[in-house]
Automatic annotation (TrEMBL):
This is Uncharacterized protein. GO terms for cellular component: mitochondrion. The lineage of its organism: Eukaryota, Fungi, Dikarya, Ascomycota, Pezizomycotina. It comes from Cudoniella acicularis. Gene3D superfamilies: NIF3 (NGG1p interacting factor 3)-like. It comes from the Eukaryota. The keyword Nucleotide-binding does not apply. Pfam families: DUF34_NIF3. NCBIfam families: YbgI_SA1388. GO terms for molecular function: metal ion binding. Belongs to the GTP cyclohydrolase I type 2/NIF3 family. Keywords: Metal-binding. The keyword Electron transport does not apply. SUPFAM superfamilies: NIF3 (NGG1p interacting factor 3)-like.
Length: 311
């Protein structure tokens, strides 16, 4: 009996993701990245297509199955802690079982995307500072990164050459991550209404997702992240800092649509051409493939302003 293998296109996509965001960049102290579900290849059953998502929910799995994707690139690992069983009563495990049955694999790059140069945190920093406008640094550098990936690490600090108004930064963040219903902003209680948007910001600490532990105690004027707890935000404003949060995955999702998808398409094309030259790709290299960003993936929270008719 032949040994089951993963779909050939899935292998190409995984290698492309690894090239852009090496697994060695992930924070292995807590993260669970890499190939989380290796589904056996079913020739002729699935398309040469992949789906990118932040969260792998039941709705996203339904979307991938309907599209007949052979692999899902899920930023957040659907398997995060050790499993003692895999049953249908657990919604995430049920999703994994359905995907395995369909032959759809799952790969998660997570914090490798955060740490990479040109990755998620760098992109968030790009949204608030133009070239030459600020000095950028890494909050927690990676020790002994792979060759060619020096200077990578978790979180970013942006220090402006000239102060920026808080209101202008809120507008830039909203535009970059949009469309959003709004963002949450916390300022010191001593700042009166009408003056908050005019506050001068000289420095920003950035962490996609949940930035409480990384940004705590940072010597900056503004903390920009997906979420902070009530007490973390209060502690920051009591020290005179400002806070901008967007909901956890809203700080991440636009990156995959605007940046990662085109980067992955380009890298997969190069990989297929290289494999074809070596005789390792059996199809004509000009044959098409599809890498899409999920249309149903969204943050679980919405901002409701009172107009329940439209909601």
């Amino acid at each position: 009996m032949a040994t089951p293998t993963i779909a050939p296109f899935s292998k190409v996509v995984i290698e492309a993701v690894k090239k852009l965001f090496p697994e060695e960049l992930a924070d292995k102290s807590f993260d669970n990245t890499g190939l989380l579900l290796e589904a056996p290849y079913r020739p002729g059953h699935l398309e040469k297509s992949a789906l990118i998502t932040v969260d792998l929910t039941k709705a996203v799995a339904d979307e991938a199955i309907a599209r007949r994707d052979c692999i899902i690139i899920a930023y957040h690992p659907i398997i995060f802690r050790p499993l003692k069983s895999i049953t249908l009563s657990n919604t995430q495990q049920s999703t994994l079982l359905r995907l395995a049955q369909e032959g759809i694999s799952v790969y998660s790059p997570h914090t490798a995307v955060d740490a990479a140069l040109g990755g998620l945190n760098d992109w968030l920093a790009d949204g608030i500072s133009s070239p030459g406008q600020a000095i950028r640094s890494v909050i927690t550098p990676i020790t002994n990164p792979p060759v060619g990936y020096e200077g990578t690490g978790y979180g970013r600090i942006v220090r402006f050459n000239a102060p920026q108004k808080l209101g202008d930064l809120v507008a830039k963040i909203s535009a970059q991550l949009g469309p959003l219903s709004g963002v949450s902003v916390a300022t010191p209680q001593s700042v009166p209404s009408g003056e908050k948007s005019k506050m001068e910001i000289f420095s920003v600490g950035i962490c996609a997702g949940s930035g409480g532990s990384m940004l705590a105690g940072l010597d900056v004027d503004l903390l920009f992240t997906g979420e902070l707890s009530h007490h973390e935000a209060l502690a920051a404003t009591e020290k005179g800092k400002c806070v901008i949060t967007t909901f956890h995955s809203n700080s991440e999702r636009a990156y995959f649509r605007k940046m990662m998808q085109p980067m992955l398409v380009k890298t997969v094309k190069v990989n297929i051409l290289d494999m074809a030259r070596r005789g390792e790709w059996t199809e004509p290299p000009e044959n098409g493939f599809d890498i899409a960003v999920s249309e149903v993936d969204c943050d679980p929270f919405e901002i409701i302003t009172g107009d329940l008719e439209s909601w």
